[in-house]
């Protein structure tokens, strides 16, 4: 069952880009005596749209701790966004490197002269890879990213917004993964086309996030 608190009053806008923005918005709700239970943070809280990170300038660790303490004092919760596309242009981005290194990304089909390669599409961060949520091994690895150590103060204070898990591919033929993109479901080889599992992709994102 979902937590009872999620039936409360929620506030979400794209442009909360600093700790001070969040605290000011919460304060305005108090000032005008408007009920508020949750504040949602969009992409700008991350370090250059790398999910499972905080922007080091606008959401520094000590600032996040101060923000969470204030929200907790007023019995409010925070929700942060997680999208399944991972920026492919930064070898130091640990989440993407972890998925790529373990072979947990969907593949672009190959041919007799060229093997299948990791699929790369364009989304908010720029060139992006897409985790293969049909692979149960990948889902177990994704679930580990929600360990309490991922964010300062994660326990009981931060909730997750799973977003754009259609999955969104801005330069895709249908703004999603091409139908012939390959998945590795319960087999050792990439043999399942995306057309067969499109509706399962988002479901498995949620399943992995709750594990």
Automatic annotation (TrEMBL):
InterPro entries: GH, Glyco_hydro_31_TIM. One of its GO terms (molecular function) is glucan 1,3-alpha-glucosidase activity. One of its GO terms (biological process) is N-glycan processing. Residues 1-209 form the Glycoside hydrolase family 31 TIM barrel domain. It comes from the Eukaryota. GO terms for cellular component: glucosidase II complex. Belongs to the glycosyl hydrolase 31 family. This is GANAB protein. The lineage of its organism: Eukaryota, Sar, Alveolata, Dinophyceae, Suessiales. The gene is GANAB.
């Amino acid at each position: 069952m979902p937590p009872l608190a999620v039936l409360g009053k929620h506030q979400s806008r794209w442009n909360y880009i600093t700790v001070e923005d969040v605290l000011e918005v919460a304060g305005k709700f108090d000032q005008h005596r408007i009920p508020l239970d949750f504040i949602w943070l969009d992409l700008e809280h991350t370090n250059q749209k790398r999910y499972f990170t905080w922007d080091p300038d606008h959401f520094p660790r000590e600032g996040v701790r101060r923000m969470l303490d204030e929200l907790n004092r007023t019995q409010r919760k925070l929700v942060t966004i997680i999208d399944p596309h991972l920026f492919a242009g930064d070898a130091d981005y640990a989440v993407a490197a972890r998925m790529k290194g373990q072979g947990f990304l969907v593949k672009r089909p190959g041919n007799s002269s060229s093997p299948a390669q990791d699929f790369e599409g364009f989304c908010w961060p720029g060139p992006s890879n897409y985790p293969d949520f049909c692979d149960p091994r990948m889902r177990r690895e994704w679930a580990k990213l929600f360990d309490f150590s991922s964010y300062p103060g994660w326990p009981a204070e931060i909730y997750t917004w799973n977003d754009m898990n259609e999955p969104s591919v801005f330069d895709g033929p249908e703004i999603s993964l091409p139908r012939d993109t390959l998945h590795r479901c319960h087999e050792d080889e990439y043999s399942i086309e995306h057309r067969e599992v499109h509706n399962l992709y988002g479901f498995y994102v949620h399943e992995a996030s709750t594990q």
